[in-house]
Give the backbone structure.
Amino acid sequence: MKRLLPICLSLLTLAAACSVEPGEPVDHSTVQSNLPPVPVPANDPLTEEKVELGRRLFYDTRLSVDGTVSCASCHRQEAAFADAGRQTSVGVRGQFGNRNSPMIVNSAYQPYFFWDGRAQTLEEQALAAFLSKTEMAADTVAVAALLRSADYRDRWMAAFGDTTVSMLMAMRAISAFERTLISANSPYDRYVRGDGTAMTASQKRGMSLFFSNRSMCSNCHGGPNFTDHSFRNVGLFRHYFDRGRYSVTKDPDDEALFKTPTLRNIALTPPYMAGGDSDDGELWTLEAVVEHYDKGGFKFHNQDDRVRKLSLTPEQKADLVAFMHALTDSTVLTNPRFAKP
């Protein structure tokens, strides 16, 4: 896939970035939280017009070859823009992928995309899904005609100041919208901003355990977005048919390593563990995830050495789960700026 992207760009004969950027850049990172400012490409500032165009494209199933799948089909607002409730995501013609689509809230902060990290920008990720035969399988000629139609012509001009249409520019608009999907108003956020009543006693105990050397949870799920963006194996299986990061790098040291996800809104996004593809569905709950780590996982040659038997008490397990619930930002589910137009 990593070699496919430049070829696809060449075949589509994508236009260069426009020199005209109408509208004043807008700051979508003003939520008061412990998150840093949203990183935005210097040559591609966010504007209200571009974000609104991207929102409409994000929800438009006509971008897929059979008119059944949009970006929002696998990244649903009611599931914190994840594909909760499915072991593997479903694309055009009812085809099943081999992984569950990850949550894209706060994806503006990520240096890699997909569970194996094969895309390095939001634009690359969007284009890869757009062209994938099992995801959207887009007919680029038909999509270009749609973007030139009355449905989009004026909005395209407002966003880019040019009638030139390219798939890369469409992906830039979608990515602009995705960069506004910021989650930073959970009980945990309110607590660290000074509201001592925002979390329960159990959640506070769970927070202390989460950030302790006893659990070492924060060694991988650290930082303001609760991820170190690295690739790890956590002993989910003894054998992996999905080879994870290795499929990108071909490095034996990357065998069955998967990207560490953010834990923000984690209570809303089962199944867990890069697809949750265990046959018995044992990782469909946060309680099951905690049990997995408490037991130390299944031994695998590339397993991270921080995954080891914890022997937590029932109360400690419950407190960890309670803390992860404190990372839920319900405003993401109801924000009209994120909703389908």
Observations:
- Residues 1-32, 275-281 have pLDDT under 50 and may be disordered.
- DSSP finds 14 helices and two strands in the chain.
- The longest helix spans residues 167-178.
